[in-house]
Specification:
By secondary structure, the protein is of the alpha/beta class. The protein is built from 12 helices and 10 strands. It is globular.
């Protein structure tokens, strides 16, 4: 049985073939880091980057360790997987997932790479970044027991939509897809997706606005393409300390009411029954797993 991943509020990408950037990953505070073999690596360097990515895993201790392979249409995916699968690799990020078959093929490649090993192998995060992928996300989310979650690829999706702007606001065009994959992920029993990156890498205000908009839709984390974005993502996607403290009070008050035979009460003006208590319990568990503030508040 494959185990789940810890909550990923921040997913920090770095080119696998740039040792200076890779060396800094462990100390930045991201929940997960991705050594990239795809878009961040020039075509002529992709093969050499495989060994560099695998070797770099040993120096990454605290974050979840991921490698993004190249998409199936490049012909590089099987070689990427064969070169990088090892006990130190926690997750493979597969780009441009458009059909369940994309994940089935990856399962087969991972199984081949694990031949003769009793290691369970890496989990998978699927990048949904084309119109076809968004439309098929419900089936994709159920396609593999290795699948740990979905990532919303806003940049590539904007290209696929044919939007005639490089710097304009395309959030309205992306809104339906960004919301849809939340429902697709949750219906399949996956955590809320990880939202795509804010391309204004030096603009902390823009990063926070994007993160809060994604949070409001049900996303549980954000891709980061610059170290300065990590702290914002971690803060925005951590359970609010006041909400966690209220959830604990609500759980305690309901337990007392239940002992008296009541299963519907009001706590600080909020109606509470079993579904609300279950939501409060889930919030506290999330806070505990992500090391969020508010856990010791009475």
């Amino acid at each position: 049985m494959m185990t789940g991943l810890p909550p990923i509020r921040s997913l920090l990408f770095a080119p696998a073939n740039e040792p200076r950037k890779v060396a800094k990953l462990d100390g930045i505070g991201a929940d997960a880091v991705v050594l990239d073999l795809e878009d961040a690596v020039a075509r002529e360097h992709k093969i050499a980057a495989r060994a560099m990515a695998r070797d770099a895993l040993a120096a990454i201790v605290r974050p979840v360790r991921c490698i993004r392979v190249n998409a199936w249409d490049t012909g590089l995916t099987p070689g990427d997987v064969a070169a990088i699968v090892c006990p130190m690799l926690d997750v493979i990020v597969l780009p441009k997932v458009e059909t369940p078959r994309d994940l089935h093929r990856l399962d087969s490649a991972i199984t081949a790479a694990l031949a003769g090993s009793d290691h369970p192998g890496p989990r998978v995060l699927a990048l949904i970044e084309t119109c076809a992928g968004v439309l098929a996300a419900s089936e994709i989310a159920r396609a593999s027991p290795r699948l740990a979650g979905l990532i919303f690829g806003a940049g590539d999706l904007g290209k696929d939509l044919g939007l005639p702007t490089l710097r304009g606001d395309i959030s309205a065009a992306l809104a339906w897809g960004r919301a849809k994959i939340v429902y697709d992920a949750r219906a399949a029993g996956l955590p809320g997706p990880i939202d795509g990156p804010c391309l204004a890498v030096r603009d902390q205000v823009a990063m926070e606005l994007e993160a809060r908009a994604a949070l409001a839709l049900g996303h549980r984390g954000k891709v980061c393409i610059h170290p300065d974005q990590v702290a914002v993502a971690n803060r925005v996607f951590s359970p609010d300390a006041d909400e966690v403290a209220f959830a604990k009070r609500l759980i305690s008050a309901f337990a007392e009411a239940e002992m008296r035979g009541s299963a519907s009460i009001t706590v600080e003006g909020v109606f509470v029954d079993y579904p609300i208590v279950e939501k409060a319990q889930a919030l506290v568990r999330l806070a505990e797993r992500s090391g969020s503030p508010g856990l010791d508040t009475a």
